[in-house]
Design a protein that fits this description.
It is a single chain. The chain is mostly beta strands. Helices cover 15% and strands 53% of the residues. It has a 39-stranded mixed beta sheet that branches. The termini are far apart.
Length: 833
């Protein structure tokens, strides 16, 4: 008994050892065989990361798991991925490990595959992988080799995979996302029946830059009868769901050679209009809740003929709606008398023979009808279109028929438009060959949404359409306190809508009043984003709500402005004239003149947002006669920088260029600023200045009450936010003065004033000290320096007496030591008080 147990244990150990050893022994053999075969047979680069073999998972079958298979193209498709499979798992007969050229596969499971089919501009396809002259030949019965490969397969399963088809020659993109497919049955022999089932999470189709299908789901369950000898696939049973619409697909497909033969039919299982609404993509399904629909709808399609090369089979797809009515629950109005006939067809031959017709598309809300027709032909070579839209809609009725969430609209839109012509004439701007005319009238149009802080009101709008332009003869708009009257032309609109061209406009903008504070706060900031940002310091409510904005792409719009009155922050502005241009996602101001701060300014420059929402600016200012007291009362920044300017008088002039970057709240990022320019004053008089009052010890106090500054011109530079004031000369209280200094990005000032003070202006304390110095009558003028540094608005004022003491010494050489000691100690005591 003991020997039997020992023998059984030995047998078990040998079997287990074999099960562990066989995968290790055959792994590299199979991996190298797969790589060699694929790279030999395909005109592509094939990479296989790993191959795992297990005899335990599906014993007595072998489980083979292929990891990270990647096929990339060569030549014109070099580095383009054709196929990527992270995981491909198969279950094979154990004997196939010893003879991989005659493999019996029970199942293939592909997970998260990506198939990327490409056709370039010349019509070449990246899946054409068989090298020229490498077609398989008939094998001889008596000859075998390791390259003679035979496959028996029972099941294919595809999980969570994606397929993308891009045809650059047709400007077409087809994408199937989250594909799950199960095919089971004997895929060998003379004939069989295959059961297929699967779904597509998202089907999308874009052609010619237009999205025809998006967010569409597919579900299919089919029984196929297959004849492998004639390669005929016949649909015996079928259930097809497009979104939630059940359809029936029948017919057959033959592939006897390189030519495919089709004889297939498509029909809707039901004819109710409510079922037709199931075609609405699931992403919009929430809008279909609580809706009651009546009417008849039908879908029929056929696909017959053959496909070979550029010769495509005949197809037809017809969709008809009659006597349709829609009513949402709890809505007082309904959309009624809905009808439409859509016919997409093509005879056998080129795809350019396709014709699309939308006939008698019609709907009504109350007594307001809307009609639409469209015909398209030669869509591949040069699309020819013929369409019309006519309707009058009272938006208050529409609001009572369709749920609009938080959007509120009212007013009347009356449209009568038609367009007929070829796409090539639009591209070439041969507008004489295009017929396009009509009008759109707006009356008391109102649009309100939580995304805007102000409602948009159009009391009256008149747009006339022609092939080359849209004429705005009268277009009135109100945004809060701002009113606009627009007139002019909008051109190239057909290219803009049909070919992603640039929309051009040349408009006259007139206004009686513009509130720039409201317009800069027109866009509501997302609450979630706002909560993540720290609160700004020392900002007003108006400044806090200002948001950076972007100029739309593909527009080239010129506004010639004439604005009577405007307000920005607390600054009243009048007589704004000049050119405002929006192009290349940049806002440009050209010779924009305006009266403000009791003076005048000419403004030139540009503004352009960045992906980080931190706009770039480059402006030039030409300021003439700004009133300094008015600047103090209205400009918070000026008041903080020069607190004593409130009691001052005079005018400020400046020519200055500045560029840099703004934050999301349109506040300057100081370190980004760079520029240069000049500024000057006229009739500047400083009254009761806290800074100058500290000089009463060396200048007569009565002279400091009313400080007159002679007119001057100063040059300054801004480098990385630091302001450098170059030395300039003027007269302060009639005394010659040289001024120079800096203001850095931390708002710290470092300013120096060098005076040449005449004797009659000396303060009484200095006069008393000088009186006891022998030879003081020789001193008619003394230099005195003052250094002002520290935070702007509250700087420290310090005397610099080095030049003063030298001047006294030179004037009284005989009594140099005694005079200098007495004078220095006396002056220092004055500033210690």
């Amino acid at each position: 008994m003991k020997k039997i147990i020992i023998i059984l244990l030995v047998i078990v150990l040998v079997v287990v050892g074999a099960l562990v050893a066989i995968p290790i022994i055959f792994k590299q053999n199979l991996l190298e065989y797969a790589k060699r075969t694929l790279n030999k047979e395909l005109n592509a680069k094939v990479e296989l990361a790993d191959l795992k073999i297990s005899l335990f998972r599906d014993f007595p079958k072998a489980s083979v798991d292929l990891k990270d298979m990647l096929i990339t193209g060569t030549g014109a498709f070099a580095n383009d991925t054709l196929l990527s499979i992270p995981s491909l798992r198969t279950t094979i007969d154990l004997s196939s490990l010893f003879n991989p050229s005659n493999m019996e596969v029970e199942s293939i499971v592909v997970d998260q595959a990506f198939i990327n089919l490409l056709v370039n501009e010349s019509g070449a396809a990246n899946w054409d992988l068989v090298p020229a002259g490498n077609a398989p030949s008939e094998p001889k019965a008596e000859t075998t080799s390791e390259d003679d490969f035979q496959l028996k397969l029972d099941k294919i399963e595809i999980l969570h995979s994606d397929l993308k088809y891009t045809d650059k020659s047709l400007n077409m993109n087809l994408a199937l996302s989250d594909v799950n497919l199960d095919i089971s049955g004997e895929m060998y022999g003379q004939g069989t029946s295959l059961e297929t089932g699967g779904n597509v999470g998202d089907l999308s189709l874009q052609y010619g830059g237009i999205q025809y299908i998006s967010k569409t789901t597919l579900n299919v369950k089919t029984l196929l009868d297959v004849n492998f000898e004639t390669m005929t696939f016949t649909i015996a049973e079928n259930e097809l769901m497009v979104n939630r619409l059940p359809l029936e697909l029948g017919g057959s497909l033959k592939m006897p050679s390189d030519t495919l033969f089709f004889d297939m039919q498509l029909n809707a299982k039901s004819s109710g209009f409510e079922n037709f609404l199931a075609l609405v993509p699931p992403v919009y399904e929430s809008y279909m809740k609580d809706i009651h629909a009546q009417g008849n709808a039908d879908i029929k399609g056929t696909l017959t003929g053959f496909y070979y090369g550029e010769d495509y089979p005949e197809f037809s797809l017809k969709m008809n709606i009659q006597n349709g009515n829609l009513r949402y629950a709890d809505m007082p109005e309904e959309i009624k008398n809905i009808r439409a006939a859509v016919d997409i067809s093509k005879p056998q031959g080129d795809l350019d023979l396709t014709k699309i017709n939308v006939n008698e598309a019609h709907a009504e809300i109350r007594q307001n009808p809307v009609d639409f027709t469209l015909a398209v032909s030669t869509p591949m070579s040069d699309p020819y279109f013929d369409g019309a839209l006519k309707g009058k809609v009272d938006l208050s009725h529409l609001k009572n028929a369709l749920p609009m969430d938080s959007v509120n609209m009212s007013g009347v839109i009356d449209a009568n438009l038609m367009a007929r012509g070829s796409y090539s004439d639009v591209e070439a701007e041969r507008y004489d060959k295009i017929r396009s005319d009509g009008t759109v009238l707006l009356q008391n149009f109102v649009y309100e949404t939580p995304e805007l802080t102000q409602p948009v009101l159009v009391p009256k709008g008149n747009l006339s359409f022609s092939p080359d332009k849209i004429l705005l003869s009268e277009f009135l708009m109100q945004l809060g306190e701002s009113d606009f009257r627009l007139s002019g032309t909008v051109s190239n609109y057909l290219n803009y809508f049909l070919k992603e061209g640039v929309l051009n406009a040349n408009l006259q903008l007139n206004s009686k009043r513009v509130n720039l504070n409201e317009l800069l706060r027109l866009q509501v900031e997302d609450a979630a984003v706002a909560e993540t940002k720290p609160a700004a310091q020392n900002t007003t409510e108006e400044e806090a709500n200002v948001l950076a904005f972007s100029v739309p792409e593909r527009v080239d719009v010129t506004f010639r402005s004439d604005i009577d009155n405007a307000v920005f922050n607390r600054i009243p502005i009048r007589n704004i004239n000049g050119v405002i241009k929006a192009a290349d996602q940049k806002l440009t101001l050209q010779n924009l003149t305006m009266d403000m701060l009791e003076g005048r300014m000419n403004l030139n420059g540009s503004y352009k947002n960045t992906p980080e929402n931190k706009p770039l600016f480059d402006f030039g200012f030409d300021i003439n006669s700004f009133d300094i007291p008015t600047m103090f009362r209205t400009l918070a920044g000026f008041k903080n920088m020069i607190p004593g300017a409130g009691n001052s008088t005079g005018k400020l002039n400046s020519k200055f260029a500045l560029k840099g970057q703004l934050g999301e709240k349109l506040s300057l990022i100081p370190a980004s600023a760079n520029g240069a320019g000049t500024f000057s004053t006229q009739n500047l008089e400083i009254v009761n200045s806290p800074v100058f009052n500290q000089l009463s010890g060396i200048i007569k106090k009565e002279k400091l009450k009313d400080i007159r500054v002679a007119d001057f011109v100063a040059n300054l530079n801004v480098e990385n936010g630091n302001l450098l004031l170059k030395p300039f000369k003027t007269k302060v209280i009639g005394q010659e003065t040289t001024v120079a200094g800096t203001l850095n990005v931390e708002n710290l000032i470092d300013l120096r004033l060098d005076f040449n003070v005449e004797r009659e202006a000396f303060g009484p304390d200095i006069q008393k000290i000088l009186a006891v110095i022998p030879g003081n009558e020789k001193i008619k003028m003394l230099p005195a320096g003052v250094v002002i540094n520290g935070p702007v608005g509250n700087p420290k004022v310090s005397p610099d007496l080095s030049k003063t003491t030298k001047a006294v010494a030179d004037a009284t050489k005989d009594d140099m030591k005694n005079s200098l000691d007495k004078l220095g100690k006396g002056i220092l005591k004055l500033f210690e008080k």
